[in-house]
Amino acid sequence: MERAQRLTLIPVILALATACTMIGSPELAPPRAQPGETPPAEPPSRSGNMVSYEQGGHTYRVLSSSAGYDERGIASWYGEKFHGRPTSSGETFDMNELSAAHRTLPIPAWVRVTNLANGRSVVLRVNDRGPFADPDRRILDVSYAAAVQLGMVGSGTATVRVQAVEPWQHRVR
Question: b vs e for 45-61, b when ≥16 Cβ sit within 10 Å of the residue's Cβ?
């Protein structure tokens, strides 16, 4: 096969491979909350809800409930490097979904994240653990899709307010 023919086949093969990853069972897809809707109640994740865990020399204690959680700090975003990898909940990370990683909230939990610089706000589903880079300053990692909605893609980080929203999640039932 000539080099030109092989080069022509590469985009076709990549398109077919990408299309295959989009096929999935609707029962396995994580619940979504549309703007203005109350997020769906879910049972605690079977993984990621340990009493405490160690990461990077720090010990983190997972909260027993998301009720009343309200914190201000720095959020960063994560995307392509982690796209397709398993999250702490066991789900597959999709950078194009509205999700977040938090070190201590029960999984899954719902949070309203507000970018304090521009007032943009979005409700996200916490299904992963993190951020572990700069843990003394950063309180949340958001997916690329969330970063777009919050207007923080270019800067990489933003000062945010993170508030847990109902339904409250508990580490165990």
Answer: beebbeeebeeeeeebe
pLDDT above 90: percentage of residues in the chain: 66
| Structural domain boundaries, residue 108 | 66-173
pLDDT of 142 above 60: yes
pLDDT value of position 80: 85
Angle value at C-alpha 33, between 148 and 62, nearest 5 degrees: 85
104 within some domain:
yes
Asked if residue 127 is part of any domain, the answer here is: yes
H/E element, 7: helix 3-21
pLDDT at 30: 55
Q: Is residue 47 part of a domain?
A: no
Q: How far apart are CA 61 and CA 25, in angstroms?
A: 33
Q: Look up the pTM and report it.
A: 0.78
Please report, for the domain that includes residue 75, its CATH number: 2.40.40.10
**Domain count of the fold of the chain:** 1
